[in-house]
Amino acid sequence: MNRRRLLIDAGNTCLKWAVVEDKQWRAQGRSDYADWAALTVQLTAGTPCFIASVASTAQEQRLAALLGAAGISAHWLAAEADLAGVKNSYLNPLQLGVDRWMGLIAARGRTREPVLVVSVGTAMTVDALSADGVFLGGVIVPGIRLMRQALQQGTALIAETMGHWQAFPRSTADAVESGIVAALCGAIQQQHARLVEASGSAPQCLLTGGDASMVLPHLALPAEQVPALVLEGVDCVARERMAR
């Protein structure tokens, strides 16, 4: 697939993008919703754009207007029941977040072994994929910033002070930060153990999302950080759609 294409992963707080051509990722970047200059210079009329978005309606409308003004056809992706070797076992397949769906598709493209797909962002999702490509299900928990905000807003004595991870914290700020990391790691490790039990073998663990690097060093299991995992899934779907 040699045709140029633009891939976009529109998240809650920012969007990531990549330009792919001749099977090569020519450019990649991250743009805050307040400044799309880096993305704008990559826009070329006639380029198909494939988008996985969990952004607000207002941000999606802004993005659609930007792409339309540049003469770019936008393809807004959504979860499906079965695609690219992945079977969606959600009770309502369309309800699955498209970012999670793209992460699962990318994981399937990387391995035929059981795999745990973890995205650490505004929320953290931990999704299990079997060796035969079945999405078994997953959990959603608040991410680092949401947990921190909940403690600051829901208690009287926890101030808005940034702490640091410590094995045995001796300040409130460090206790908050260390507790948040412990909670997230615990959710990942519990789902990992459940997937081991379900599959009978040790699954791979792939981490993505803006806060993945804050969790990865503290996991008590092997894991690989893949920053562009969602975009990899978007590209897999883009190649399939463009080949039709």
TrEMBL record:
It is found in: Cytoplasm. The active site is at 99 (proton acceptor). One of its GO terms (cellular component) is cytoplasm. SUPFAM superfamilies: Actin-like ATPase domain. Its main location: cytoplasm. One of its GO terms (molecular function) is pantothenate kinase activity. InterPro entries: ATPase_NBD (IPR043129), Type_III_PanK (IPR004619). Signal peptide: none annotated. Pathway: Cofactor biosynthesis; coenzyme A biosynthesis; CoA from (R)-pantothenate: step 1/5. Gene3D superfamilies: 3.30.420.40. It catalyses: (R)-pantothenate + ATP = (R)-4'-phosphopantothenate + ADP + H(+). Substrate binds at residues 90, 97-100, 172. Homodimer. PANTHER family: TYPE III PANTOTHENATE KINASE (PTHR34265). Belongs to the type III pantothenate kinase family. NCBIfam families: baf (TIGR00671). This is Type III pantothenate kinase. The gene is coaX.
